[in-house]
Design a protein that fits this description.
Chain lengths: 506, 219
Amino acid sequence: MRPADGAADTAVRALRRATLGRSLRANVRWAVRAVGWGSIVYLVFWAVVLAIAALQSIVPLAPPIAAALTRWAVPGASAVLALALLQAARTQVTPLWLDRRDLTHLAAGAARAATVLAWPAWRAALPALVSGLVVGGALALVVPRLLGRPATAAVLLLPTLALLLPLLRWRAALAAGRDAIAWTIALAGAVAAMLTAGCTAAGVTGCSLAAGAPAAAALGALTPATGFALALGMIVLTLALARRTGLARLQALPPVVMRQSELLAELRAIATLRGLSAITASAPDPGARFAEARARDALRGRRSAFAPRWRPRVPRRGGATSAFAWLALVRAWRGSPLALLALPPLVVGVALTTGVNGPFGGAALVPGLALAWTAAVLHPGRAGWEGFSVDGRARTLAHLLLVGSLTMTATIGADVVRALLGLAPATEGWLLLPLGLGAAALVDTIGARAADPRALGVWLLAGLLVTVPAALLGWFAVDAAIAAPLAAWAWLLLAWVRVVMAPRYV
Amino acid sequence: MRVSGSGAAPLLEARDLRVTLGGVVILDGLELTLEAGAAVWLEGPNGAGKTTLLRALAGLLPSDGDVFVSGARAGSQAARAQLRLVPDSAPLYEDLTAGEHARLLGRIAGRENADSAALAWCERFGLSDRLDHYPAALSRGMRQKLALAIALGGAPPLLLLDEPFNALDADAGTALLAGLADHAAAGGAVLVSGHQADLAARWPGSHRRLQAGHWAGAE
């Protein structure tokens, strides 16, 4: 059998029509079933009413304020545009990608690359176009009421600029971030933004408006005729650039699309799941963060996509406690770099300032919260024990040992810093150890019942609860010399009870 | 049925093929030529680079070196029209029925009657009564059969199949083995990866072994 000319392209178009049409109909059906036509009409009605009411409630700004706003809004908007252009010019990630099904059936098929990439191109352009229309439309409605000037050109300018950005990103990705045209446009935008800012600072309005013409037109600072002429110029430029990019004539799929598609599809799936978790308030997948980091590393061709930069040696002896301690350290090390960097200065900072000011109960709140956060960062988590029974006591002990040793080290470090600064050692410093252990015990207890032991709610609640003994003693005006040891014993008791009563997890 | 390529050039020619991912060398300087009628069973341990090799040959992975399919550079439209790759777990469109897959994806092969040939293969694999089912209602083996039926129906000169026998029952495995032998006999070329020793023993063509990105036994 010989290849039939154009048959593959026709089949790809038919496939897209069938799958997208059904997907759209399924989504509409879901929306109607979940919300109902009546509710949709009701919501749309109120959305329109609220939008009209919000529009009518806009009061024109006083002339001096309107003038000042216009003066600084133009360089501000120009700077945002320049940054967006520079970001687009330096990108090496393609905005057009195929999912696994398309890669398997279409990318290795006989259809033209242009036909295969037609839907991804729409998928990249459509949200940009809609966002541009919405923001442009909003500007066209709000600016006249707020500043007393028409800004109708924004309806054309914003969608055009919004379409220009994915176009530049596509060109940049094809040239691995070295596309001459994309960089020329981005640098022109940067120079214009700097000129606009300079002219505004110097008070030369004409120069500012000329250099920042797109932003000025979108904000109604130019005459409507000038604004529309500029918008038409931008449309012609964008169309010419799109034509020059030659997506419609593409025969072979660019290597960047082939290399990055699967990873971009994976990242999109992770983002969708995260969004769904947020909407339904369900537990996020604790492994998603690592999968996302790995996919991003792979996208940039980094070796860390295949193996960690640091391989911890799991201790051969020491049993479950030391194994859990190692697991916690490894998770903390491979977790958020920001959390890891913040950990030592935070704990030392807390150690330096403990009990310096305020009543005893209030003074315990900040270190209590900080140590609970530290305990959450160092939590061994659920990895490694899901699906089989483990000794909860060993896990809790490992957690307390880590937090305890970190707190002890920080207390000693804080005393060294105090000595270097010529300050007396903090007598309350020793309170940090029981406080840290109490906070860790509470994080461990609450975390065992939460979906994610490191979640914000877990350590926030633990931080508040751990300060309760100190707060109560402070509230009853118990002398600090008595209250401090009492609170310390309460925290130690809490930690001990947690270790003794730690459940077995399955 | 006679499979026809573009002429005198080998159906597949890879010269000094090298694939590096994140600084890790997966394939290192491989040479491979498949003439019309070749049927090669690709074997090797897990992680040897079999899947990467098949993907690179199909033009789905950027690689160094030269890969030509019927004389056209891998990844070009001309090359893509000459081959079909079936991965070990072929993803399907969840909103298309099995029959629609066979018809639409068969036509994407770009050959006349490819859709009816794909449907004929569905019948041969025992999928006739499942053609109006969505993929979610098909077992893993049935999904694999569907993906294979689409590829075989397209009858491209070059077939690249990644562990196609994994989820198949014995009858389907035998049918596939016979179909691949027929394909090679009709002037096509087949490169199949697999681990099944019994099927490898019945394989009608030659065997190549990949080891850590090199051909086993090669310097």
